[in-house]
Structure formats: structure tokens, C-alpha cells
Amino acid sequence: MRAVYGIVVRELVRFLRQRGRVLASIGRPFVWLIFAGAGYAAVFAGRNEIDYRVYMAPGLLGMVVMFGALLAALSTVTDRDAGVLRMVLVAPIRRGTIALGKALGATVLGTTQAVVVAALLLPLVHLRPSIAGALLAAVAVVLSSLAMGALGLALAASIRSLENFAGVMNFVVFPMLFLSGALYPVRHLGPVLRLVAYVNPLAYGVDLLKHALLGAWASAGYGGEMSSWLDIAALVGFAVVGLVAAAPLLAREGGVTRTAFRQRV
Amino acid sequence: MTAAAIEARGLGKDFGTIRALEQLDLDVRAGEFFGLLGPNGAGKTTTVHLLATLLAPTRGTARVVGHDVVRDDLAVRRAIGLVFQETTLDRDLTVQENLRFAGRLWNLPGPLAVPRIEGLVRQFGLLERRDDPVRTLSGGMRRAADLARGMLHEPRVLFLDEPTAGLDPRTRRSLWELIGRLRQASGLTVFLTTHYVEEAEPCDRVAVMDHGRLVALGTPAELKRTTGVTSLEEVFLARTGHALGETGAG
Ligand SMILES: Nc1ncnc2c1ncn2[C@@H]1O[C@H](COP(=O)(O)OP(=O)(O)O)[C@@H](O)[C@H]1O
Ligand SMILES: [Mg+2]
After folding, report:
1. CA torsion, ordered B186, B187, B189, B192, to nearest 10 deg
2. Exposure winner among A22, A74, A105, B38, fewest CB in 10 A?
3. C-alpha closest to that of A223 among A63, A62, A64, A50
4. Is the minimum distance from the CB of B45 to ligand 1 under 6 angstroms?
């Protein structure tokens, strides 16, 4: 589908042109590795089944995917504000096609960023996955990007203005990160938070990444906590739900923002 | 026989309690240069968005080149070009990148799109600026690029929603020359909305709209004759009781 390709290409070009965004996305996990890693490593000290920095690696990759895919999908808010969304809406394509294009754009961005970070991070923490592990990690990264991209899109399509954007980011991103198992195992959480973790797409992505990368430490209790198939099914499920929800939301009010509308009155 | 380009029957749209468009009955012939004249808030943009399938009608029906705007929205969008009141170009991309993006959205294969973009960029005086980000273009050039985007897929009906609002008179004139040339070249139907009487003057027929209602319809000459006045400005005043410059809706 040419339209989907066009939407994906535009996302890529825009991303590569924003040098700050590229550097931030690659630098961010290393900042976490240094600062959060140092703190948690101290807490973990004395338990020498696993180096905390190794334990963090899947979570950090999950984090890269989350920021990469979510920020790409949330660009829909700026598209709406700048009017570009209306150019897309007046093209002879279905709303579902637009949603798919946007979600795939987020998938490509999330995946590419995760691959670049993995190439730097894994050697740094002396983590050498097996071939099968690396393949499963790739599957995890692609599916997580797609799920986060699709859900982010539904979120972005329901936001009317840029002002709401920052608040939503804080309300969504940080709980999602802390309840994902990226920094500590989900099973250490209380029952309520654990329940929240189960509706968190990032938790399944990180879990699958742990299956892929921490297989050697599984017996010590640091591998994936759910079955890989459940992780995969959940990620696919989230992707479908996000796409189905996003498609009609994109076309609301002909893609005109409240702000744009207010100025006209 | 040529089918009507646009047929609206009892077409209307409410936004909550605001009746943006009451009940519009309208026929626009193929190849016609049709003007919709009215003050801010009259319902012009709402009308265009309904005809372009971007809004769902609250009541009534409409057909564009024979396709129903609700049941056959894809076919309608394939046949029309729409230049929105505000620019829809991606300001961070270049003119060329925007047009390539549009070409893909309209499913034009590269070998078809590339020469067409080349031709439009040349024709619209954007040749030297085509690799510059849209953000760096003047208002007039940006409008020309918007117009190129709207014409890229060679639509049969072109909607222009206040295309010259905010432009200086000289740029407006050159944009009008451009639109005139497009019409002559292709027998294009043009549906123009405006709140400038002088832009409605050259139209084949003009519909005058106020508060979501048509108050007059005819050729500019007919309208002036039947109202017994000498300008469209006076036509508006006589039919609505207030001047065009005053905002219609409160
Ligand atoms: N998305 C919207 N939500 C609520 N009211 C709207 C919306 N769009 C337009 N309106 C209202 O509908 C009326 C007609 O607006 P519009 O079609 O934009 O007029 P025009 O294009 O002639 O200036 C105005 O009163 C405007 O406030
Ligand atoms: Mg308008």
C-alpha cells in the first residue's frame, strides 16, 4: 500500500531531521544505566546471582522501544495541530490505513532505536545472547513497538490539544515504566500494582525480552515471569485494540483541533 | 450529457446546539466556476467539509460527481482536490517532500508522480524553492504549494476554501491568475468560498450564504439585476440586512 509507505517514510524523515530527538533516544538508556543502575546495584549488592546492569538490559531496551514508539505515535497530536492530518484525511484512503501507517511508522522508529541501543548496550554489560535469544529479542522489540505505537496512536488521536500532551505523557509513561519489570521483577509488587502491571503492554514486552536475553539467569528467578506465548499474544492483542480504537478517533471533527477552531470563531 | 459536479439536497450540519448549516439545496454543473460568498461563521467551511466527506452530515444528502458523500466517501475523495483555509503542508519538510508524500497518499506511482510534481513546481513558480522547508516560504508561495498539492492527482472538482485570506493584494492576483490557467487547461470544476466580493465577481454563479442559510443564488449579473443594485456587496446587504464585513454568526 503506497499510502502506508508514504506515511512511514515521512515519520522516518522527520525523525532523522530532529537531531536532538535522535541523540536523546540513544542517550537516554545509558543515563538510566549509570544513575538508576548505580542506585539499584547498591541495593542489590550482596546478591551475586546477577549483575544488576545485566538485569536492567532488557528493561532498558523496552524503555527505548516505549519512548521511540510512543513519541512517534504521539506526533499525531502535532499533525493535528499543524493541519497535516487534514491532508491525510482528505486523501482517498481509509481511516484504518492511516492508523496502520502511523503505527508502522512508530514500529520502524521504535525497532531501529532499540537495535542501535542494543548494539551499544549489550557489549557494554557483557551480555551475549544466543542466536535464538537474539531472534526472540527482535520479535519482542518489533511486537512491543507495534503495540506501543498502536496504543500511543489511540491516545494521541483522542487528545485534542498540545497542552494536554505533557500531562498525559507523565501519567502514562512513568507508571508504565515502573510497572513493567524493567527495573525490578513484577512479582515483588503488591497485588493491586501487580494487577495494573498485567494491563501494561510494556510489561509483556519486557518479559519477552527477559526470556530472550536473561535465559541463563532464569533458574535464579531473573528471567521472564510469564510464558513467552502469553507475552506475544498480549502484545498482538494490544496492537489490534490500539489500531481499532485509533482509526475512528483520527477523523473526529475532520481533524480540526479545538485550538484551531477557537482561533477562527 | 455531463453529470452535475455537486448536488446537495437538504444538507445540514449541527455542532451541538450550533446550526452551522441549515438545509442546503445546491447544484453545481461540471466545469462551472462556482462561488460561495459569506462572512466569517456563515457556514462556508462546514459546507466544503461536508462535500469533501470530512464531516458527516446531520441531515440531508449530497453527491459529488455522482458519488454519495456518506456511502461512497472514498470515490468522492478520489475525485476532488481540496485546498484548506489553513495550510496543511508539513512545515518541516521541503516543498518537494510534501508533494512526494501527497503523491503516495493519492496512490500515484513514482513514474507518474515525479514528472507531474516537476510540472506543477515549475508552473507554480516554486522551482528554485522546491528543496527548501515549507516553513521558510512566504505566505503566497506556501499557498501556491498548497494548491499544487491539491492539483497533484488531477481532480475533477477543486474546492478552494478562502484560498487568498491573509495574502497581500499582489500575491492574491498572481494566485488568481494561476487558478484561472488551471481552469482553462482542464475544464476543472472550481468551488470557491470567499468573503471578498471581488473574488466572487468573476464566478459563473455565486451563492450568498449567511448564518448557515443560502440567501441568494445566481450569476453575479442576475443577482445585481434582481436585487436592483450595482454590486455584490449591496446584494448581500439587501438580502441579509447587514453588511458583509460584519461577522455573521455571534
Ligand atoms: N468543529 C466545530 N465545532 C463547533 N462549532 C463549529 C465547528 N466548526 C464550525 N463551527 C461553527 O459553525 C458555524 C459555521 O462555521 P464555518 O463553517 O467555519 O464558517 P465559515 O467558514 O463561513 O467562516 C460557526 O458558527 C462556527 O462557530
Ligand atoms: Mg471558513
Report:
1. 70
2. A22
3. A50
4. yes
Half-sphere exposure of B124 (CA within 13 A, CB side): 28
User: In this structure, what C-alpha cell is assigned to residue A256?
Assistant: 480540526
Dist. CA A204–CA A202, nearest whole Å: 5
β-partners of residue B26 are B8
Given a cut of 60, is residue B247 above it in pLDDT? Answer: no
* CB of residue B41 inside a 6 A radius of ligand 1: yes
Chain B residue closest in CA terms to A7:
B101
Which pLDDT score is estimated for B246?
Answer: 59
Residue stretches of chain A with pLDDT short of 70: 44-48, 162, 253-265
DSSP B229: -
Distance CA A179, CA A197 (A): 5
Task: Identify the CATH assignment for B4-240 out of 1.10.530.10, 3.40.50.300, 3.40.50.20, 3.30.70.1620.
Answer: 3.40.50.300
Share of chain B above pLDDT 90, in %: 74
Cell output for A119: 548494539
Of B97, B195, B177, which is closest to residue B137 (Cα–Cα)?
A: B97
**pTM summary value:** 0.90
Provide ipTM, 2 decimals: 0.91
Mean pLDDT of chain A: 87
Q: Which residue is associated with the grid cell 507475552?
A: A231
Judge whether B131 is closer than 8 Å to chain A, CB to CB: no
Domain edges within chain B: 4-240
Q: How far apart are CA B59 and CA A150, in angstroms?
A: 33
Residue list, CB under 5 A from ion ligand 2: B 44-45, 85
Grid coordinates standing for B247? 461577522
